[in-house]
Structure formats: structure tokens, C-alpha cells
Specification:
The chain is mainly α. It has one domain. Helices cover 66% and strands 2% of the residues. It has a two-stranded antiparallel sheet. A hairpin with a 2-residue loop joins strand 1 and strand 2. Helix 1 packs antiparallel against helix 3, helix 1 crosses helix 5 and helix 4 runs antiparallel to helix 5. The longest helix is centred in the N-terminal third of the chain and has 43 residues. The radius of gyration is 19 Å and the shape is globular. The N and C termini lie far apart (46 Å). The mean pLDDT is 91. Belongs to the DoxX family.
Length: 164
Amino acid sequence: MNSWLSLKNRLDERMDQTTAPLGLLLLRLWLAQEFIQAGWIKLSGGLSAPDWFRELSFPMPVSWLSADLNWITAGVLETGLGLLLLAGLFGRLAALGLLFVTWVAVYSVHFDLGWVGWNQIETDDGQGFKVPLMIALMLFALLAKGMGAWSADAWLAKRGRAPG
């Protein structure tokens, strides 16, 4: 029994060494491309918010900004923080910022169905927040675990120049 437990522990340790960096890298790459694309769409569309965006209700303190400034700010944050996530540079700060952006999106766009929309994407009655919830959970995992061994944060930490 003890030898099986020992073997299991050795396998777990080996898997952690080989798959953990890859898993965190893939998570970062997926989330980064999602946010960079969303941000780029906003920024490449001009400095004026579209009509559908102007009609949204935003939470405080975001509600203090005009619709156009909200549109630009969302685009800059999604693109900029997405690029930081891609590189794994200041990754926890980027994940935290993107969690805020995601919360604003849920509050303003994806909460049509209320709390029952937690497992809905889009229905005839409105938008649910299943996809933003999944994105938030992925961002939280990066916030909790860091960017992994294959990141700029790890590279800088090895040289004694940890970002932050």
C-alpha cells in the first residue's frame, strides 16, 4: 500500500512540474485573446460609443463616466490588460483589473435574466452571464495561482526583479 502511495505521489509531483506551467499558459493565452479582441473591436470602431452601449446602466464608479469615455476605457483596459496577461507581466494585477471589467459587463449587459441567468448564454428573454462567469472563474484561478513558470513575472522573479 505504501509503495502505491509513493508511486502516486511521484506521479503527481511529475505531473505538477510538467502540466501546471502549460495549463496556466493556455489559460492566459485563451483569456488574453478574448480580451484583446474585445478591446480592439471597441477601439477600432472609433471614439464614440454605439447606441446600444449608450442605453446601458453602469455601476458606480463607472456610471460617473460618459458613455463615450466608458467605451474607450473598456477598450483600453481590455486591450492593455489582455496584453499584460498574454505576456504574464504584472499578471495578478491584470487578472484583477479584468475581473473588474467582467463584473461591469455582467452588471451592465449580461444580467438581463437576473440570477437565474447564471447558466444561460442568450435567450429570447435576454442575456445570461454563463460565459462571463466562466471567464471570471478563469481569471480568479490566475489571480490565485499566478501566471506560472512560463511568464514574464516568473522570468523577472528568477532574476530578483519581481514586478510590482
